[in-house]
Amino acid sequence: MGIAQTLAWASSYYLPAMLAAPMAAELDVPTPAVYAAFSGAMVVSALVGPWAGQAIDRRGGRVVLVGTSLTFAFGLAMLGLAQGLWTMVAAWLVIGAAMGAGLYEAAFSSLVRLYGQHARGAITGITLIAGFASTVGWPLSAWMDTQFGWRNACLGWAGIHLLIGLPLNAWLPKLPAHAKPERLAAADPAQAVSSASPSPAPSAPRSGYATALLAFVFAATWFISTAMATHLPRMLEAAGATLAAAVAAGALIGPAQVAGRVLEFGLLRRVHPLLSARLAAVAHPVGVAMLLTAGPAMAPVFAILHGAGNGILTIAKGTLPLVLFGAQGYGARQGWLMMPARFAQALSPLLFGFALDAWGANALWLSGAIGLAACGALMLLRAQHKPDSQVSVLHQER
């Protein structure tokens, strides 16, 4: 699943950075039009997410992820064959549907469907592998574009999904025949904990309060991460760094993200995910304060803090809903929780770009304030105690 996720991210989220310019040139459209179509894809992914999560709750992840491998391949083939603006937009919308049902949220939901409350380690492991998606995707897309052109690069990614991603997702374990939601109570009680029936709306006011806080946290942190991914070199130059220093600092973000995930997999796995998420959320504001007060010499420190925090928060997007609300209905709940984040992600490049144009490096105070607000929301959340029956089942499993 980690390899399949690497392919999915590399051929969707990280594709425009390498192919938007040659795509726009040949199709005779402005380069921003390609990014606007990509933003439309993220909006579609937000709308598809809850449906995909509910499908995983009912049927498990294998069927859904196999379907998204086919959808990715179809959308990328459409993109490679696009003849103008509207066929290009249509292709990105198809890719957006695959993103909504085939990126991290779907992978996390599939793992929770299989492992229940014990999915945290597997979630971390997948993000460790897929953390190299840009490392794999950017050079491979650039090489295919240079050697064969951007159209064949898209067709090449489509073929990779069919030849590698599809078989890997098809090898996911099938759910047991008795794992129907309506039969779980009469079947294996341990399976009842790990299964996820169609998610009911939270009935307790506290659950609704926690859901709203968590949705805000995810939207805020995805806004920041997408803004930095889009504008980091330009933003560091505005803060006084040279272009070479800005590029060098930006190169530290990927390794820092992986290092943060290794830290989560090792030391931080012994603490509650809320604590690790709070530490991660405050990393970006601390980096902002250091960069804007001490100057461009702090650019590498800022990049490391931002990258490490972002890496841990990626895992928190999978583990926090699990520990706060449990495994039941996880997939659909994850889809609804991430819907505001997908919209924030779609708007982030445009809005932060406007802020950067208007305020220069001081636009970082905006991202820092959003990060502090996310940390404050996490401070308001409290760990939920497991029901006695669930504690008993987990004790039996141990």
TrEMBL record:
Any one Gene Ontology molecular-function term assigned to this protein's record: transmembrane transporter activity
GO cellular component: plasma membrane
Keyword set, alphabetical order: Cell membrane, Membrane, Transmembrane, Transmembrane helix
Membrane-crossing segments per the record: 33-51, 63-82, 88-107, 119-138, 209-232, 238-263, 275-295, 301-324, 362-381
Compartments reported by the entry: Cell membrane
Pfam families: MFS_1 (PF07690)
Keyword Transmembrane helix part of the UniProt annotation: yes
InterPro entries tied to this protein: MFS, MFS_dom, MFS_Efflux_Transporters, MFS_trans_sf
Membrane topology: Multi-pass membrane protein
Major facilitator superfamily (MFS) profile domain residues: 1-386
Primary location class: membrane
Protein name stated in the entry: Major facilitator protein
Organism: Achromobacter arsenitoxydans SY8
